[in-house]
Queue: 4 jobs
Job 1
Amino acid sequence: MRTLQHTGTPMIEWKISDGLTDYEEALAFMETRAEAIAAGKAPECIWLLEHPPLYTAGTSAKREDLTDPDRFPVFEARRGGQYTYHGPGQRVVYVMLNVGKRGHDVRRFVQQLEEWVIATLDEFNIRGEIREGRVGVWVTRPEKPPLPDGSPREDKIAAIGIRLRKWVSFHGISINVDPDLSHFSGIVPCGITGHGVTSLVDLGLPVSMSDLDTALQRRFDPVFGD
């Protein structure tokens, strides 16, 4: 794990892990760090990593949305949301930030996470969008056949799900860089049917994980800075 000191206000510690990080190890780190942040004993932290293939179930997950339960390990994440997939080629961004010191406004905090993802995607000339009733960030796919009602097909490129403890967030965001998109077929991602999943590479952009990390860091302060 590499640590990068971020000089924004307030001070935030950025961590980047190479290779694949065990999910339970990540949960233990986040819970410990969130407690330390709440107690004023550690700075806020953003952790960039990849997981081995797995499914996670949020607090609203429906069992019938786990369509292939034996395919990969399944973890109870205790974050908001439903089922999601994590795996190689997907950048997971765990955000351990003090929402209490940022206004005690959870809705606004989630909106900021969405804005951050959209601003990051804009660096690669991708227009990410939010849809009412559909969590995550979406891209329109005009080159694909439209839906039965004639509306354009849209694919999900990023998922968002957080949990708060003592007003400190953990869990966060996942952005598809170049994962195996067939791995999403073992779940109904976020309980949403009728639309697909895409990635930066699937959209024809040979973006590396390092490219994405740089964009995430550059676009953080304009969204979250004081």
Job 2
Amino acid sequence: MRVEETEDFSLIVTSFYFKLAGIWPANNQKEEYLRRATYSTAICLLVYGIVIEIRDLYFSWSSFAELIFVLCNLMTIAMVILKVIVLTLNKQLFFEVVAHLEKHFWHNNYDPYEKLLLDRCRHMCTFFICIFNFFAIGTVVNYTLAPITAYIQNNESERIFIFNLWLDNSILYSTPYYEITFCSQILVVYQYGIFYLCLDNFLCVTNFHTANQFRILQYRLENLYRTSSMEKQYKTSEPISPQCADDCYVTFKNYVRQHQSLIVHCNKVEKTFTVAALGQVLVFSILICLDGYLVLMEEAPVSRRLIFAFHIIGCICQLLMFTYSCDCLMRDSMDIASAVYSMEWQLFPMNYSGKMLRNDMQLVIMRSKEPCGLTASGFFIVSLETYTKVLSTAVSYFTLLRSY
């Protein structure tokens, strides 16, 4: 993902996280070696974290509070692992999606109104990514600071790791082994945070920008007769000449090709991220429920409650960003039908171009009734309705858990 020529903050942040994760299109052999080394290191850290948490789960069955804490960590880890698997298996499709975004979305020449739409889209991406990243990074930072705070409060008499190792009288608690182990766990936490952020940031960016391309296409279709070559004839309200109809039909065919290109792009995004979308929707209900329980648990230390306060707000923001961007994509793709019908097609003569334009319009309208968007492995389309259902399910789970 090359962002050297853009000032879009959301693109810069998204590209930065993908590079830290070791997933980006390499320009040369040197970059490819660096990418593979970064990715291999990231995978090793992820595996290290999985082993620690599974071991922690084994020793936490006797304490309900600790069990809930470990289960919440494992749910987050499971979601991150699913994202890693999805990106690894669909790496080529992902690179094709990135290449299409760079070629057709971010470096085209737009008129003033289209630039205004693009700026609004960039501001929307930046807003959601900043909010989501703030709470996600805040969760990671609080994970790191919790053992340090406990160490200071206990007058440096007790050393605590970020993740419990369940090792008695271990040499790991003495200097310098403690510091080395603690730093390795910090790397694990931050690596999970990077993978947790990168895919959702990218989905937000690509969904909002694709929806914006549908809005730009709507604007172009609605103003088909008002292009520069026919502007004079439009202002004088003269009847549309056959030559003008031919020019309009050629322009309309180019817009149809643009519409087809957007549909193909949406299908690639769907194939790449549909499994990850299903996993996120299934996990979010349980994760928000567990986060809420840990925040309200009175016997839990303040540092742990602060961690999951950040986490639950981050999850809610992440879910809203995810579902709202998908909802925008779905609705803007369907609005193409209204834009096509508003083309002043009734003014075109009944020559060959006029007849063909009317026939092609019907096909575009019929295709637009099937929305483009992201589905959860084909079970349902992700939209704002999904957001309300997930929150409703999370509240139900939380009520059941509180009565335990």
Job 3
Amino acid sequence: MLDKIADKWTILILIVICPKPSRFNEIKRRLDGITHKALADALKRLERNGLVTRTVLPTSPVGVEYAITPQGHALREPFEALCAWALEHGSELDAASTRFDQQQKAQA
């Protein structure tokens, strides 16, 4: 189950479209570093899992807009808790990683 909601881009995509539906290129612009393919794959997966809807807009050229579903909105509270935890404990994780890396070098 976590594979469906906790990959590298899912949380960030949902944060972008949570306040208002967004078009593909708008999402891509707001997510610095995501490739076209990675975004397309992630949006398709989110749609498949019922977290995002995809609406074809009657524009010329045809546009597509993505919106978060009620099920996707239900993830907001756990994601916010996870972000708060990460902010609170990030320096501890960094220190632990540094200690581990130094121990590995010393053993080598």
Job 4
Amino acid sequence: MRYEYHGLTSSGDSKHGFIQAADQNAVVSKLQKKGIFATQIRVAADDSQAVSIQGLNQVWDQVLTYIPVKTSQKVFFFRQMALMFRSGLSVTEALTILSHIQRGKLRQIVNALNDDISSGKSFSQALEQFESIFGPMALHMIRSAENSGELEPALLRIADFMERKHEIKTQLISTMTYPIVVLLMTIGVFIFMMMTVIPKFAGFFERSGRTPPPEMLQLMGIANFLTTQWYVLLVVFIVVIGGIIYTYSTREGRLYIDIFLLKIPLIGSMISASAMSQ
């Protein structure tokens, strides 16, 4: 069977070609004998299919650049960098190999890092422009590791920290899912009652000529407001959300919002526990 392969040599040079073999394992064995590390192996298509597949792959790669980098991708990136440093590769050689393995936005980041380091910047200096993606802790640890010469263990610690942080975040989300769902269902039932049930009671009292109790009059007023002035609530909701987003974008506003969240009975204790565990 004819296979198409992409690979790298020990010096980081890219290789691409076709090879005849019984299966993919045989392809890997033949390429290793030639000193080529296979990064991608697939059954070779005819020329017309190859052109169409290549075009689809390019389109898909472009689409992936708009998807945020996942935690698993960042963990894989730091672990592979540590492994390559342990093997004696330089930073640029390691980034060149990773650029052929990664896809989407992370590939763009790896290529940008490689270009900056090749132009004379250090690894930490090149990472500064991507601090929002990798986080300030990773940047500070790499900067300190460069000064102490312990870059490989620092990268492994960063990967471990990111894994633990992701696990804690996942546990926090799963814990908060039930109360949030209950809250949303309660709000939905309340709106349904105000929009459908209460107007029917109002019609009943109107036809019978009886005066509703004070509590029913209050509910009828709320129902009338929701059915006739709902757009006011929509505008208020948009303004409140926009105000919160704007406030959180400033340093002082973020401080006040964080203090408020920490004072909420259930949410505050969970945030504190999560931060302390990290």
